[in-house]
Amino acid sequence: MELPKMMDTFDFRAYGLPSLIVSSPVVALLQVIASELGAAAQWWQVVPVPLWLAVCTLSVHLGHNPGKNLEPTLWASWGGPPTTSLLRWVNAENPERVADLHRTLALLIGTLRLPSESEERADPRRADQIYETAVGRIIALTRDAGKYPLLKNTLVWYCFRRSLLGLRPKGIIIGVVATLACAILGVLAACSVVDMGIAGPFVAAGIGCVQVLVLAGFASEDSVRAAADRYAQELVKLTYAL
What we know:
By secondary structure, the protein is mostly helical.
């Protein structure tokens, strides 16, 4: 696969980019060091494409598991997956809308019968299992990204934010350590202890500061919840178009 095409894939955008954001202070620090090595100053131009592909592939794997492992905890704190919550009778803001959604789903999911309000109240765990199965069938019907681009984009954003949240603890440590290292290099350069320009280290330190601020401020449970809710709402809307 060509590098530009790979960088436009779902996996790279959802899982690879969070890994690269987390590692950006380290990359900046390495660039500062490499820039003092003469011929290595343009190292990113001479690194072979296969190695870049390997780096991108590795970033996808590194970004996937932390966020995915966090998902059960997030769902438990939300009272279940957002898609399941939209199908429940309990605490429904608009019971008529839930009833209409159930009727629409019944036409799409074949032999699977959705629980009534009384059945859900009597056995909420079984009701949730049925809802999750129904959602799984709808997801299977909407996998074509070409036909449902908005759904794909909302899912990308959800996975991206979830991955970033999963990587946040280690990412902040990486950012702080790399920023301090760059700042120390800058001070040493300013004091002529090391022979290098002072601009590079402080620019790299700035990149580290931005990374820490992004992880501390943007990578939050609230941002993941907002993206998850948007995906759930978009998936529910599509049930009326199938």
